[in-house]
Amino acid sequence: MKVVMIGSGNVATIFSRLIKQSGHNILQVISKQLPNATTLATELNCDFADNYNDINTTADIYIIAINDDSLTKMTTEFNVGDKLVAHTAASVSKNVLQNISTNYGVLYPLQSLRKEMHYVIDIPLLIDGNSKQSIKSIQDFALTISPIVNQADDDQRLKLHVAATIANNFTNHLFSLTEAFCKNENIDFKLLLPIINETIFRLNTYSPTDIQTGPAVRNDISTINKHLVLLANYPKLKNLYQQITESIRSYR
Prior knowledge:
By secondary structure, this protein is of the alpha/beta class. The protein has helices spanning about 10-20, 35-45, 70-75, 130-140, 155-185, 195-200, 215-220, 220-230, 235-250; strands spanning about 1-5, 25-30, 45-50, 60-65, 85, 105-110, 125-130, 150.
């Protein structure tokens, strides 16, 4: 398919690479950030522009990979008739595109993507559309760049985005706090990587509820109190420790 990529950030970059690798023809990159558009277009060997008035109107699909605020503001800036248009946002309704085309939907990657990634595992793609035909067209296209494609409406995508935020972003924040604690206490954070990796590996087989370990699940009050004493100089981390410990103890 002939593709126009609107956006030049992390999602646009990774999507563009996958799309090109899958044999599609990217005609153009459009981005308000002209230096970024130039960089991505140079990598893809395609045209670029920073104005929607210059959009290539011969594409088969237009993929809009920009941030949510920009997405909700751009809906009257151009129109491509009945050409297929899909945005990549989790928490924005597909109907935000109704003034851009009569044939529209969503192509949301349920993955944390960064431009620096040179190897990307199969990305779960959640799709939706404003008609059976648009859903089928987006699904057919999605299956060329990932074997994991599922239909999810606006409500389902938002719920999955909440779940992903808790499971991924919150967990990474805990890693950041732990790393800072290790630096302050002159211990090596990297020594924790094997236990972190083992926990993630177990999730491929077991429910997280079934593999919960640690002093909270054992109700080991003595160890918990020792930890809290050690965290006295880290009030934010201590507060989180107490809240999560209580959550674990009361969960079962």
